[in-house]
Design brief:
Oligomer: single chain
Distance between the termini: 9 Å
Shape: elongated
Length: 317
């Protein structure tokens, strides 16, 4: 690749986006050219099953600014695609952008202003989100839970339109955990983070690739990957329930001695038992999340497998 690193690297993960990619290309390059800075674009094809890979290869041949196209052998997820983009980026600043055009490329300059001001991490808060109502409400709920269980202060965790300084990107590249949440991981290495409000548009074409299960899994990764507070919380709940159980048993003993045998409260006891069983099972599931993360780590499997990498070398300039 060229020896002189560009000032800006734009990392774009792509998964089955053939319908929106032409519109992305039409808006991305003019927006970056208007910045009057040397830049590169790094595309990561996350195992797309449509024509996305072919379209990216064509861009690599036509546009010298597209210095790298990473083609995964299968679908490994958006965050691992971003990690692969980080590994192949060379810019002083790195900005991640989704391919669906919900975050306008024209707003990249606003993130650069904050990076130039000395911030090494620039998060974004989407104004008037153009998502389904259940996704907005679920995001708010998860944000509140995450704020109380981790030290990560991210207002809009679902927005992947973010800017990073090279020091933060290099620190992320040194990490090797199997499952992670890239914005939160980068935040932990940031010395001077900030957030700005950005516009949010409807999807250019196609449908969201995140199912409800995928979103739940991602949020579990965020909470269990950056804090042990949920485990401590359930330890506290267990202690409180144990103390309340002792008090309740003593109450039943006294009531039996005073009132005598009773059968009317049997359904209340069943309700209490089922409630406690539900709490216990949820706690076991939470423990399983932590154990599962340990299991993923000790297997030492690769986070992703690259099928092909298209790069511009020195002799191709």
């Amino acid at each position: 690749m060229p020896t002189v690193a560009p000032e800006l690297s734009v990392v774009i993960p792509v998964f089955n986006e053939q319908e929106v990619l032409p519109a992305l290309f039409a808006r991305l390059y003019p927006a970056l050219d208007a910045l009057s800075r040397p830049y590169e674009v790094v595309f990561v094809n996350d195992g797309s099953r449509d024509r996305s890979a072919a379209l990216l290869k064509t861009q690599f041949e036509l546009r010298p600014e597209v210095t790298c196209v990473v083609l995964f052998s299968s679908n490994f997820g958006q965050h691992r695609a971003i990690l692969a983009g980080f590994a192949h980026s060379r810019g002083r600043y790195v900005i991640t952008l989704d391919a669906d055009l919900q975050n306008p490329p024209e707003e990249i300059g606003r993130l650069l202003i904050e990076l130039d001001a000395g911030h090494d991490y620039v998060g974004t808060i989407r104004i008037e989100r153009q998502d389904l109502a259940w996704r907005r409400y679920a995001s708010r709920l998860v944000n509140k839970i995450r704020e109380r269980t981790t030290q990560v202060k991210i207002t809009d965790q679902g927005s992947m339109f973010r800017g990073y300084g090279r020091v933060v990107v290099d620190a992320v590249n040194q990490c090797s955990e199997y499952n992670t949440f890239v914005p939160a991981l980068a935040y932990t290495f940031s010395m001077n983070p900030t957030e700005i409000r950005v516009a949010h548009e409807e999807r250019g074409a196609g449908k969201s690739k995140y199912s409800l299960f995928s979103l739940m899994r991602l949020n579990f990764d965020l909470m269990t990957g950056f804090s042990t507070a949920p485990m401590r919380l359930f330890s506290g709940i267990g202690i409180v329930i144990a103390l309340l159980s002792v008090v309740f048993v003593l109450y039943l003993v006294v009531r039996r001695l005073v009132v005598g045998p009773e059968a009317e409260g049997v359904f209340t006891l069943f309700a209490i038992a089922f409630f406690l069983l539900g709490v216990a099972l949820f706690g076991v599931g939470l423990l399983g999340e932590y154990v599962g993360r340990i299991y993923d780590e000790v297997r030492h499997r690769p986070r992703y497998i690259v099928g092909t990498v298209l790069e511009r070398r020195e002799d191709q300039k």
